[in-house]
Amino acid sequence: MQITERTDHDPATDLLLVDAYMRWALLAAEEVVGKNGLAVILRQNGLAHLINNYPPEQLKATTGMTLIHYANLNAGLLNFFGRSARSMTLRIGRQTARYSIDRQGALFGTAALLASKMLPISTQIKMGLSAMQGGMRRLSQSVGQDRHFELEDRGDAWAYHDFADPTSAGKVADEPIGWIQTGAIQETLHWQIGKDFEVEQVACRSMGAPASIWLVHKTPKLPSA
Fold it and tell me: Can you give the residue ranges of the 4-vinyl reductase 4VR domain (predicted)?
């Protein structure tokens, strides 16, 4: 995996980063790599000012950071983990989702999701993904911005489109790099429905796509033996 900086301007890098959103990612990363490991990653990726100085738990943008700082954290984690990057950043994504659900559940409509358990699974998945997109949109609106998302029915899967994917803002890569978001989608659906679903990133802005896209299969995974 090779990750470099885009040579042209990526408009996503102009979007402000909500304090709580970055805090959740840092707390989740610290749980996986430890405080010292995270300090190394932050120092090597232009984020040394965040060492022992995480943004506050609030839906405001007070640090001046933008999505490029989140992308720098993501790239730093992927480079740090090497061959185990996929599994480790999936873990970070899942833990990030837990923080967002526990600490800002109303933002993501968690009460309505829990009440949807009698509906068909495909409908539950759609509601969960729509709630994720709605929560992210409200996060952005809380700092006077708007994020563009789409949700597309592709028959046996839902396609989750993010046109300003924070994991890839300002980056160029030779393969998809949104494993944190993959983990976040997996964990949100597991929390909501109680089942595991196959989630795969099929397009990435870092590879030139207009939007990063994740396919979420409608059939639950079979329990492992």
Answer: 169-210
Tokens found for residue 56: 């506050």
| Tens-digit pLDDT profile for residues 114-133 | 667 778 999 999 988 998 89
> 209 Cβ partners below 8 Å, 6+ apart?
203
Q: Would you say 79 and 114 are in contact if contact means Cβ atoms under 8 Å apart?
A: no
Three-state DSSP at 14 gives helix
Q: Which of 187, 60, 57, 197 is nearest to 132 (CA)?
A: 187
Q: What are the beta bridge partners of residue 96? A: none
In a domain, 29, yes or no: yes
> pTM of the prediction?
0.92
Distances (CA, A) of 79 to 3, 13, 26, 48, 141: 8, 20, 16, 17, 32
36-40, 54-58, 104-108, 157-161: the lowest-pLDDT one: 104-108
Could you give the CA distance from residue 191 to residue 132 in angstroms, rounded to a whole number? 13
DSSP-assigned states of every residue in 144-165: T----EEEEE-SSEEEEEETT-
At 13, the amino acid letter reads T
Q: From its phi and psi, is residue 208 left (phi > 0), alpha (psi between -120 and 50) or beta?
A: left
Q: Domain residues for 103?
A: 3-220
- pLDDT computed for residue 59 by the predictor: 83
Confirm whether 43 is domain-assigned.
Answer: yes
Tokens of 90: 């999936």
Give the CATH number of the domain where residue 147 resides.
3.90.1520.10
- In whole angstroms, what is the distance from residue 185 CA to residue 58 CA? 22
